[in-house]
Amino acid sequence: MADYDAIVVGAGLAGSTAAYCMAKAGLSVLVLERGDAAGAKNVTGGRMYAHSLEKIIPGFAEEAPVQRKVVRERISMLTGESCFTIDFGSSRFKDPASASYTVLRAEFDAWLAGKAEEAGCDVVCPAVADDLLRENGKVTGIIAGDDELTGEVVLLADGVNSLLAQKAGLKKELSPHHVAVGAKEVVELSSGVINDRFNLNDGEGLAHLFAGAPSQGLVGGGFLYTNKDSLCVGLVITVSEMAKSAARLPDMLEAFRESSPVKPYLTGGKIIEYSAHLVPEGGINMTPILSADNLLVLGDAAGFCLNLGFTVRGMDYAIGSGALAAETVIEAKEKGDFSNATLGSYKTRLENSFVMQDMNTHRRAPDFIEHTPRMFKEYPELVENILADMFTVSGPSKLMVKKALPRVFKAGLLNLAKDGFRGSRAI
Amino acid sequence: MKKIAVCYKWVLSDADIRVNEKTRELDMEKCKPQVNDYDRNGLECGVQIKKATGRELVGITCGASVAASAKDALSRGLDAVYYVEDPALAETDKVGSAKVLAAAVKAIDGVDVVICSEGSSDDYAQQTGPRLAALLDMPSVSYVVKVGAGGDAFTLERKLEEGSEVVEVNAPVVITVSPEVGDAPIPGVKDIIGAKKKPANALTLAGIGISPDAVKPRATRVSVLAPATSRRKQVLNPEGVSLDQAAAALVKQLSADGIL
Q: Which whole-number Å values give the CA distances from A409 to A78, A371, A374, A388, in the listed order?
């Protein structure tokens, strides 16, 4: 008889969601988290789309430590000299089913792990699951330090660099093309100042993404999110790109923070936190083997993350995959069969859900983004030039089309058509 | 059965204290409660004595909000925890908390070895152990770094400012220990899970015969401020003078300040 029905490795959003759902169904669950507390090792930009958690804990935002509800979206294209911004505010974003919230993982993950504990899970942190426990080749639990703990099934929710999934042969070592590195600072400012600077009411938030100059021509971009009384400012750059450049990420982040489109937002603020993390960005190309006898892989460990340039999502997929993993384990418990014959249905469940459907819909996105460097340099410059022509008065005027066309020709009509076509099929 | 009681304090972690640069006041908002670091060595000392003498090992704590401490303390080798939680203890002083701990020791049957650490990471007043010894009418042996135990006889090595001293004493005794007495291991997963199943016993002030008046503070803290630090932020090449000149200016300044 195993100590637990299920052992979950990692108390991030995927792990805690799975643990919560399984415990609610009466299963005995152990959660191991290597951080001092759930969320201590986790980083988000960050904004979470609420829909997947809303289905599991309706109205969760009433009690969860969310920062602000995002009602305003901005995207900027920056060159060294110019900034072109799309600003979209809408009360439509307030609908709970499609709402999104800025969150800080240290407090949000701790809350969700607390919900799992309330539901009856044993949540132990800090505790590192060093290896899988096996008996005659069969996974029977985990080894943590000097302790061996047995479970009918082990759920690997141990993050983007899941060493356990690699050891189990379910996942290859990360490719530098499939992961980005994100670095961010949390800058403290009073909530009144944030409301004033970003034209927000109390509780309302803004998400702002930046393309072009922040990544210094590399594949990646910058972000700024408003919290209650702080801002998150950071960069995400594909790892393989970092190797092409002599620039260091901390220096790039500093340059971004000090750049003229960003600096005024931060004036008077104090940097209270710095963090960095790997972000899975390979989409479906990096999906590991999702299940095996007595094993499931979920969340970032399964690469469930999608960067489309204008939305960046990982947390809602983590929660979605956690819930589906739990469903699968609950069924396995009912059948008394934790072999892949039963656990294999996890993949089908994912394929029938938004998780894998999105990964499929946007299967070309990672490749498109990585292999269209023009998006990060030439196109922001094109927009800059056209707009600069439009708004500059220094003598006789010309028809707009006469100003714009040479710019477009310079960028290359063929390139634009090609990238436009490929982009429309990917994004 | 004879018992060892380890007193531990549930303190706010000092790792997340933030200092207001203008007022020098401490902002403890982000600090989480934890078992006082020094008491972890005390708990480890208790584990060693338990192994050597077969006594039962219990933990005692008191404060305004300490019930949550039991699970943590129980993962560190204790058989049971007794805690006294009362809002009146929020403002008490060392006299008050020693009275409460002494009454708790008396309320638990069979305690003849009491262990405290030398101080706590928040106040480090070094009063609790000796005060307890006085209230319990037990000998007090302080600055203990090594414990030899067998039955009721204890051989205790004390680390003094210059040299060391070895003391032999029979239980009952109050021992206050320095961190060198034993590294506190990080609790394992099974220790943490097992802690949930061990008894955490709530005691009340009334139940152990302490009146609210007895814990009223007689010494009151008026303020706590971080030390004043002045940073000069002196720029030695403001007009971009040559490196040689700037270096010469730096050497001159450091000499003038008596640093070189």
A: 21, 21, 14, 17
What ipTM was estimated for this complex? Answer: 0.80
Residue A126 within any structural domain of the chain = yes
Among candidate residues A320, A341, A361, the one where a domain is terminated: A361
Asked if residues A240 and A222 have their Cβ atoms less than 8 Å apart, the reply is no
Average pLDDT value for residue range A251-259: 94
Which candidate, A253, A248, A206, A229, places its Cα nearest to that of A74?
Answer: A206
| pLDDT < 50 regions, chain B | none
Tell me the average pLDDT across A215-240. 93
Give the per-residue pLDDT at A69.
95
Q: Determine what percent of chain A is predicted with pLDDT higher than 70.
A: 100
Q: Has residue A388 got a pLDDT over 90?
A: no
The whole-angstrom distance between A4's CA and the closest CA on chain B is 12
Alpha carbon of A127: minimum distance to chain B alpha carbons (Å) = 6
Total-model pTM: 0.87
Domain co-membership, A210 together with A162: no
pLDDT at A309 over 80: no
Cβ distance B193 to A144 less than 8 Å, yes or no, reads no
Give the class (CATH, top level) of B3-215.
alpha beta
Q: What is the count of residue pairs from A and B with beta carbons less than 8 Å apart?
A: 23
Q: How far is B189 from chain A (nearest CA, A)?
A: 6
Residue corresponding to tokens 């060493």: A163
CA distance A408 to A61: 46
Token pair in block for residue A275: 């963090």
Same domain, A274 and A286: no
Q: Which domain holds residue A403?
A: 368-426
Q: Specify the number of domains making up chain A.
A: 3
Interface of A with B (CB under 8 A): 30, 32, 37, 122, 124, 126-127, 144-147, 149
